[in-house]
Amino acid sequence: MKYNKIGIIGAGTMGIGIAADLLFHEMDCILVDSSPEALERAKTEIIRIIRFGPLANASLPKLNVDDVVSRITFTNKIEDVSIAEFIIENVPEKWEVKESVYRALTKVCKPEVNYAVNTSCISVTKVANVTDRPDKVIGIHFMNPSYLKSCVEAIRGYHTSEECIDNAKALLAQMKKEVVLVNDLPGFVTNRISHLFMNEAAFVVQDSVATPMQVDEIFKKCYGHKMGPLETADLIGLDTVVNSLDVLYDSYQDTKFRCCPMLRKMVDANLLGRKTGKGFYNY
């Protein structure tokens, strides 16, 4: 099956990157967000990515911006995704938000449509159980920015069918992405490990062991990582990191996921990283 029109829920950092990725790979998008301001920012950012993305990734095609903009619908009406062939959801890591979105999607989407939960830590099985199609719900954990990443972590929920997995793989093949399929427990592989990594890096700064730059330099220069843990946290968004740690802590009842107090204080001060221009670094 070849997909042509994809519904994207949430016009934040991930939704923007995935929308641009789909447009680069000849699929049209319906981008939904309740905030008109978020949609306006998304349009500006998607145009920027379409213009400059091929400079960062030579495999991406050079597209005419006007043509691309005509292929994406920006809307605050979730019912507009009723014509979508696949849904990719990217709303914040808060259960009450995700639950509300999936209950709304159930009312408007065609029965055969599959849902991809783009979550950092929330259980795919729990999401599936609030829909009318738990067998058609799969986790797809896109990395940021999606259009520069060639692999995703996919998550099989308790009810996820083989047909749903095959459909998701077909969509991702159109996006030129490799898939690593794992099973469903909060955090899966990537975030169960990486959020411990980022959280402990924040503790190191809080305890005055090192500055953020020193922490990141050690990981880049000593280990050869492309980004340090605190640069990564800024890229993801510190609010998302904190929300994910809270989900992991609640899910496992394990103190190893206790959020660094300094990290939570930064979120309270709206120092969220790249999205607000200031986090561990200024942007």
UniProtKB/TrEMBL annotation:
This protein's pathway: Lipid metabolism; butanoate metabolism
Protein keywords: Oxidoreductase
GO BP terms: fatty acid metabolic process
SUPFAM superfamilies named in the record: 6-phosphogluconate dehydrogenase C-terminal domain-like, NAD(P)-binding Rossmann-fold domains
Source domain of life: Bacteria
MF annotations from Gene Ontology: NAD+ binding; oxidoreductase activity, acting on the CH-OH group of donors, NAD or NADP as acceptor
TM region(s), chain numbering: none
Similarity section: Belongs to the 3-hydroxyacyl-CoA dehydrogenase family.
Protein name: 3-hydroxybutyryl-CoA dehydrogenase
Biological classification of the source: Bacteria, Bacillati, Bacillota, Clostridia, Lachnospirales
